[in-house]
Amino acid sequence: MGARFDYAQAEEIRDVFARHGVRYLFLGKSGAILLGFPDTTQDADVFVERTMANGLALVATLRKLGFTLTDAEAAEVARGKVFVQLKNGPFDLDLVFAPDGIETFADAWRRRVEVAPVCHLDDIIASKAAANRVRDREVLPRLRAFREYWVRRSC
Amino acid sequence: MAVSILGGVVANRQGCETRPMAQDELHDWDAEFEAAARRPLRTRMRYAFVRTYKPVLDDATYRSFDSLAEYRAWCEANLPSWLGYGRAV
User: Where are the domains of chain B?
Assistant: First the structure.
């Protein structure tokens, strides 16, 4: 179990991923929190573009950040296995290459919000609605209310 | 399709999975959102990311799945339901 994800690590992800040219977006509740949603979560979720070049860059980046990956694990990440859960680094990180509720990375990238690259709240909400777990159903009403607030505030 | 709050009911994109919302609750949330917006991101993150041990889920350092359906099925079969990773309570 990694340590708590913090602001410095979010900056580190942004900077190291940018240096290695990794195409990704924060997703899930961690993404909503970066957009100002006041809530709690335990890990960071990133939606990663699924190409071999991006996967290889991601592996290099994860190792730079302090994640320990065996060669077999690195190969899975590089080829973009759909969902990878990492608890072998400085913080817990979920990698999602094909999230529920979002058609393509390119679509989400076009709608991104540049706090760090973060999925638009509509995409975060869509992925949670599609996942439809108990924990998603619990947070969705408040997340939707935040979306209304966020849009009003942005106007 | 836009997400909307209609007449005190929060509806999703499909217009289903709704629950009635008290106006007071919506006002309280708005006040929370306003308060949060006044804090810098660094402060918000300090209180947003927490660590508690999650049985089973935290007992392996690496897991991977070929689809989210496979991951969800694994969660349903292996995690305590109270963690909330399943679709049913």
Answer: 4-48, 53-89
Q: Please check whether residue B60 touches A, CB under 8 A.
A: yes
Separation in Å, CA of B47 to nearest CA in chain A: 7
Q: What is the ipTM of this complex?
A: 0.87
pLDDT (0 to 100) of residue B15: 42
**DSSP structure string for chain A:** --B---HHHHHHHHHHHHHTT--EEEEHHHHHHHTT----BSSEEEEE---HHHHHHHHHHHHHHT----HHHHHHHHTT-SEEEE-SSSB-EEEESS-TT---HHHHHHT-EETTEE--HHHHHHHHHHH--HHHHHHHHHHHHHHHHHHHHH-
* Fold type of domain A7-145: Beta Polymerase; domain 2 (3.30.460)
Structure tokens at A129: 């609605």
Residue B6 has pLDDT above 60, yes or no: no
Model pLDDT, residue B19: 58
* Nearest chain A Cα distance for residue B8, angstroms: 10
**pLDDT value, residue A129:** 96
**Residue entry with tokens 């999230």:** A99
Q: Where exactly are the structural domains of chain A? A: 7-145
Handedness of CA A88, A92, A96, A97 (dihedral sign): negative
Would you give the DSSP letter of residue B14? T
Query: Is B22 in a helix, a strand, or coil?
Result: coil
Give φ, ψ of A65 to 5 degrees: -75, -10
Read off the pTM: 0.86
| Tokens linked to A76 | 């899975």
B86 and A33: CB-CB below 8 Å?
no
